[in-house]
Amino acid sequence: MRAIKLLSLVVTCLCGGTLCLAAPEPDKLITVRVASYNVEFGKSATPEKIGEMFKPYKLDIIGFDEAPDGDWTARVGKVLGMQYCFVGKISSANHKDKYKTILSRTPLEGTEEYELTGRGWNPASVVRAVTEIDGVSFAFYSLHISKSGANDGHAHSLSTKVLPKERTKRVIVVGDFNNNIGDAAMKTVEGAGFRPTWNDLKIDVSKEFTYNAQDPEKNHGVIDHILHNNLSDAQATDGGIIELEKPLSDHKPIWAEIVFPRNLENLKLLKESKSEKLDANKPDAGDGK
Length: 289
Prior knowledge:
single chain; Deoxyribonuclease I, Chain A; six-stranded mixed beta sheet; 12 strands
């Protein structure tokens, strides 16, 4: 009887060990591959051609600007095997077929569109959706806005009226900002708690351009951007401007691979612990050191 109890105990321990080994890793990073593309109302390429161009990047989610209405975005998705999309209702500056859209590999929830107000052409807008990747929720925004200053344009409207209301912990914002990194408008967006992937990737955008892809002599620098929120402690590990031999639009597409910690609460506790240790190791003012 004693031998049977001992054997049962050993089996229980082994099973427990197996369960522990099989449990999900709470600190495992989640990788999200995203892209942004102003397609100039589909003037220069079919959605199928754009889908083929994006195939090698194995994307999870894409934000389009100046996209045609109807099934245009869904047709890109058919090529890529990405079946979920959301098409906004506000066309930039009331022009024909300049909508903001989202294409995703995973289902979209909480789809919304916000009109942005301010200096420059109007109306402008940003579309938003939430999707779950690897068991974690992400809020994704795709926009097209006008060039402006710090407090008078669409970037200010986005930064003060829309993004502060977001409750999802991991946020990605992409689109045609019509502003360069370093401009007052982009500093306003960064001041709202967002970081451009160019910074993570150490890409000197002052030497590059995303517009005009079809007329490089009249380029306006890099005005298309991907940003992630600072509170998510995310970091871009790959990405850049996609250089095409034959442009498919007047803009160049951009993409990024961004990694996010799975457990932000553990990360917060770890940072607090490190901070406490650093404080404990600091010499007291009375030590004269």
